[in-house]
Specification:
Length: 153
């Protein structure tokens, strides 16, 4: 499943095969446990997402809530999207170093950590990343990136 049409997180989980559901549910619980207050869980872009609601920050470029993290069951793996890592090369370097230090192989794109089972993850590092950016700080990162992009044009 690359993209789901489920309207709720519960419906999304129900669509998954039992083994995959177990992995996604465990990582979902982990994310919910580590997020700072102010992020809201829901469905977006066909996956579970944690966002800053439009009521709190309405000036997004696409009219959608500002996404901080996402969790998706892909065809061959699960992806955990970490937008703060996408926004910070220092955070990305730190995360890569923490996986290496733990002796774990990091399969990562620009912001997505790909894995098949929870044991593939360096949870202490991911918990620190998730907990490390309160909504106000993430909004500031987002606005700084938009200003930087606008200057390039």
């Amino acid at each position: 499943m690359v993209q789901s049409r489920a309207k709720t997180v519960e419906a999304y989980l129900e669509e998954l095969p039992p083994a995959r559901r177990e992995v996604v549910a465990a990582v979902r619980a982990f994310v919910n446990e580590h997020l700072p207050r102010g992020y809201v869980e829901g469905m977006g872009y066909g996956m579970i997402g944690w966002t800053i609601p439009l009521e709190r920050y309405p000036s997004t470029y696409n009219g959608q809530p500002l996404c901080y993290a996402g969790l998706a069951s892909q065809k061959s793996y699960v992806s955990l999207y970490l937008m703060s890592v996408y926004s910070s090369s220092d955070e990305e370097k730190w995360l890569r170093a923490e996986f290496k230090r733990a002796g774990k192989k990091l399969d990562m794109g620009k912001c997505c950590v790909r894995f098949r089972k929870v044991e593939d993850l360096e949870l202490s590092a991911l918990g620190r990343i998730l907990a490390g950016t309160p909504p106000d700080d993430f909004i500031a990162m987002h606005e700084a990136a938009r200003r930087k992009t606008a200057k390039k044009k």
